[in-house]
Each structure stands twice: as C-alpha cells, then as structure tokens.
Specification:
Layout (H helix, E strand, L loop, with lengths): L4 H4 L2 H12 L15 E5 L8 E7 L2 E12 L10 E6 L16 H16 L9 E3 L3 E13 L4 H14 L2 E8 L2 E10 L6 E9 L2 E4 L3 H6 L2 E8 L4 E7 L7 H27 L3
Parallel strand pairs: 4-6
Antiparallel strand pairs: 1-2, 2-3, 3-6, 5-6, 7-8, 9-10, 9-11, 11-12
Helix pairs in contact: 3-4, 4-6
Length: about 280
Amino acid sequence: MGDYSTETISHIDREFISDLLRKGERLDGRAFNEYRDIEVEVNVVAAKAEGSALVRLGNTTVVAGVKVLVGEPYSDSPDEGVTMVTAEMSPIASPLFELGPPKEDAIELARVVDRGVRESETVDAKKLCIAEGKKVYMVFADVYPLEYDGNLIDASSIAVNAALLTTKYPEMKVEEGKLVQTGEVLSLPLKNVAVEHTVAKIDDILILDTILKEEFVQDCRFTMAVDKNNNFTAMQKGGGSGPMSLELIDQAMDMALEASKDIHKVVDDAVKSVE
C-alpha cells in the first residue's frame, strides 16, 4: 500500500523486476492479467459480527467483519441509514505496519474500499431507515489484514462484499418511544455488488494483482470497481505520482472487465455455500 520501496528493496531488485516485465514475465510466473489463487470463506467470526469473510489472495490474507448498530441519521439525510468501511493494519500482518492510531495507509485502504461500496450503492440506504429522523441502521464493515503480500485493496473489497452479502441482523422498531426487537431476522438490503480490481503501472507495463515486491516498484496503481453488469462504479488512482495515459487507462479497464466475472463468481460461490 505505502511508499516503502526505498527502505525495503534494492536498486538491483528494482531493475530485475523491471527487466523481467519487459521480457513478458513476472516473479511468480503469472500472466500480466492474472490473479493469484483466491479463497473466500464466510461467517468466520459469527459470534462477534453480523457478517464476516476471510479472503486469501495468494499470500495476502484479509478478514472483514460487519456490525449492524442502531443510531440517529445524519441531519441532511433523515430517511437514510449509514454504511462505512474502516481498516486497521496490525504488525501481525506485516512488519511494515506499526501499532497505534490508524496511519495513512490504513486510512487510504478504508477510503478506497469504502468508495467502491458507496459509489456502487451496494446497500440501499433508505431501506436502513427504522423511523425517519430518529433511528436508522448503521452498517460498519471493518477490515483487518492478517498477512500482507501485496494488493490489500482487492482482497479487502472481496472480503467486505462477501461479508455484506452474508450479514444477518435482528429487525428493530420504535414502539412507544422505545427501540424494541420484532423477532424477525433481516438480511442487508443490497442493491448492487461491485468488486474492486487494481492494476499497477511499472514503466509502461500494466499488471493485475501485484505481489509485494511488484508493489514496491510500481509508478502508480489504478483501482476500478466493476459490478455484475460490467459497469464501472468507482475509480481511484494512487500508490505513487506516476502518470497514466488515456491509452493505459483503457487497457487497465479492459483488464478489470476481463477479470471481474471470475471474481464475482468466487464471491457468489462462497455465499451460496452457506445458504
């Protein structure tokens, strides 16, 4: 995620990776447009969260947990609930992460994944309303990397979406001014599911799903959220100040579209396994 390259990778290694890419090869033998092996497990922390998922993307592992609470709506949207993604990077995942308050990388990870959820209108905010202007459901998706070997964004996006798809929570209503349970169990009102795909630019070469060593030498990255209808619902450039031409952006979009169907299937299969 961050700008650690000057501290953790030598100039010789940088040149080796660049030369390898120019020959059409990657360190782990994958094609430029190929994801690592993906495993998705849902309901992994059922006792502590209303929805959860663990994602293994190669040697990157992320768990996402969803909590559904009741709170007051924002004043400018009294009939809408709230959905928010947060991230916490612990040293258990990588020595690159430090203890303490959320650092820039954790904030950026949360912001990019959150944008994919919000801009896609994954959760129907109006259906999270319990009593207009008084009480709404508040959906918090928390991301916890467990192992970091590159591409936390895509792994986290997959985990958050799988967790949202399996979230169950008690229905609440306001009765005589008090909040009470109805006895019913609800699933989240989902409108659209879009998974993020991140393409890295190294020199003028684009690669999908970077491992950590590739991340260290990227000029920048381009993240795109793609829904099941092949619509791009969010885009975010980051990971460096290097420019991307319109031609390269078009290529990156094609790579995301090509990969999207398979990623959505992995998520759907995991969700169906517990239905």
